[in-house]
Amino acid sequence: MILVGVDGSRAGLAAASWAVREAGLRGTGLRVVHIMPAWPLEMSEDAPHADVGRWMRDGAASMLAEAVKRVQEEDGRVQVESRLLPGDPRLVLAEAAKDAELLVVGSHGLGGFRGMLLGSVPLGVTGRTTCPVAVIRSSPAQPHGEVVVGVDGSPTGVPALAFAFAEASLRGAGLRAVHAWHLPVISGWGPSALSVAEEAAEGERRLLSEALAGWGESHPDVKVIEQVECGHPVDVLKYASAQADLLVVGSRGRGDLTGLLLGSVSHSLLHHATCPLVVSPGPAAPGLL
């Protein structure tokens, strides 16, 4: 089951459209969820301000029904259900996603401030779930036929590779495996310094090849392009996302502190990726806090 959060915003509807297409690719069901404050749902008919609570409930139910109608019109083959839940959207979505294979959210909601790159909900749920989170800002007007995955060779990056290979296979797309690295500090110039730089580059190419070992055998239909670049991972992956249908990264990498819900690279790409982004939790995802 794929879970998508909607709130009536344009970004939320874009997330729902992306989610129903993804459900169609996977042959799975779609659950459309809207979160609203708890008090209108829990208010009795004879309570003070009951009319306000009824108005809020009716508005939320109408918006949810419209979102369901829209996704059903996009792909009538997908089984769609809806849920109206109370509470904080960040916490409730993370909890509701415990039995989902993918959580999909828009990059901004109705409560977002103009000019902000990312809303509070995608930032709040990413890193808290046990399933991957897809954050939808916009989709390419025309498919590029390529999925991009960031690779750093860490164990926490393995689920991201698994997701990326599976996704490329589902889409009939190629997979670009990108590894970015920093040139080590080299004292002096000359042949010896050049040799150190070349050895470092060769080591990074070997790291990427080793990280990809075995995946080609399990996904022989996926054509893989290995890309190793000297540069900051955020800059390199942001540039790669401009020509991709989907960017996949792990929630934390080699350089991140233990205990962080989200690493620096995935956090930055939530703000700056130019295509739909999937953040995959590592093997020891912290879950809901």
Strand line-up in the sheet with most strands? 3-2-1-4-5-10-9-6-7-8
Detail the poorly predicted runs.
112-117, 255-261, 284-289
Roughly how many Å is the radius of gyration? Answer: 21 Å
Oligomer: single chain
Average pLDDT figure: 85
- Supply the helix-strand structural class: alpha/beta
N-end to C-end Cα span: 23 Å
Helix content: 40-55%
Portion of residues in beta strands equals: 15-25%
Which H/E pattern describes the elements?
Answer: EHEHHEHEHEEHEHHEHEHE
- Tell me the number of helical segments per DSSP (H or I, 4 or more residues long): 10
Main sheet: strands, sense, barrel: 10 strands, mixed
Question: What overall form do the CA principal axes indicate?
Answer: elongated
What does this structure look like?
The protein is of the alpha/beta class and 289 residues long. Helices cover 41% and strands 19% of the residues. It has helices spanning 10-26, 38-42, 50-74, 89-96, 120-125, 158-171, 191-212, 215-218, 233-241, 264-272, and strands spanning 2-5, 30-36, 80-86, 102-106, 133-136, 146-150, 174-181, 224-230, 246-250, 277-280. It has a ten-stranded mixed beta sheet, with helices on both faces. Strand 1, helix 1 (10-26) and strand 2 (30-36) form a beta-alpha-beta unit. The longest helix is centred in the first third of the chain and has 25 residues, at 50-74. The protein starts with a strand and ends in a 9-residue tail after the last strand.
